[in-house]
Specification:
By secondary structure, this protein is of the alpha/beta class. The chain is about 40% helix and about 15% strand. The protein is globular. The N and C termini lie far apart (about 45 Å).
Amino acid sequence: MSSATGSRIVVTGATGNVGTSVVRLLSEDPGVASVLGLARRIPPWSPPKTEWAAVDLASEQADLTGHFAGADAVVHLAWAFQPTHDPATTWRTNVLGSIRVFEAVAATGVPALVHASSVGAYSPGPKDRAVDESWPTHGWPDAAYCREKAYLERALDTFERDHPGIRVVRMRPAFLFKRESASEQRRIFGGRFLPGPMARPELLPFLPDVPGLRVQALHTDDGANAYRLAARSEDARGPFNLAAEPPVDAGLLGDMIGVRPVRLPRTAARSAIAAAWGLRLLPASPHLFDAVLRLPLMDCTRARAELGWRPEHTATEVLEEFLRGLQQGAGAATEPLRGRKVG
C-alpha cells in the first residue's frame, strides 16, 4: 500500500472524538506522508502533515471523489448522533452519507476502506461471556443508532462482494471515551443543560444498579491506534472487536467512586429516561437504553493476534479520566469537541 514517500490517508469525521485521535496518530506515523481530514467545519487545529477540507456527507452535492483520488486508505468515522427525535435526519448523514463514501472509494480505486462500525451493530448477546466477530450483526431494531450501524454492515457485505480487490476493515469498538471528549459526550447523551461539575460522586445518594447494564469501555486513543494499524496494514481485513478490560457494571463503578449500588428495576429506569426524552430534557433515547442492556460483551482476541493491538488503558482508567474531564469542562480545538462546563 505504501509508496516510497509514505501513505496518503483520508479521514472522514476527522474533528470528532475518534477522528481527532486518529488524525493525530496518523500524523505522528513516519510511514504516513499526508493526512486529509474531512469535516463539516474546518478547525484551527493543524497537526503535522495534515490538510483539511469542508465536506457534509449528508449533502448529495458532496464531491468525495476529488478528495479520495490517489489515497492509499480511507478511514470512515463520520457519524451524527442527533437529533434522536428525527431519525430521518441521522439516516441521511449516517447511512446515505456512508454509502456515498463507499461508492467514492470504489470509483477512485482506493485500495483500503476502514469503516467505523460498533458494538451497537451486534444482535442481543450474553453478558456473562464474550463473543467473537462471528456474532450476528442485526443490531437492536428499535434504536436508530443500532439500526443504522447494522444496515451498513449489510451494505458492506454487498460492497465486498462487488469489489473483492478493495481491502475492507470493520472496526467494532466498545464505548469510546477520553478527557477531551467529555463536553461533547455530555451534550450528546446528557443534554446541554446538564452541568459538567455536577458529575461528582459525593452528590450521588446511591448508584442505580439496573439488570443487564454491563458494558465495555475503551480509551479513544487506544481505539484510534487500531484504526491506524488497520489503515497502514497490507493484509488486515474483516471485522475487529475493540474493548478494554474489565467490563463495566454498577459494582465496578461503585468501587471506583465510592458510592453504594442499589438495585433498580429496568422498567423504573426506562420510564425515567423515556419521560425525560419525551420532554426533550435528555437527548439519549429510551430505545438506545434498551439496546445497551442487550449488547454482548466482546472478545478482542482477533485484534490482538492480527493487528498486534493492545489497549494501554484499563476501562477503569478510561472512566476516571472521562469523569475528570466532565467536571472540568474539558474539550479540544474543534467544533464538536469544544469544551464547556454548561450550555
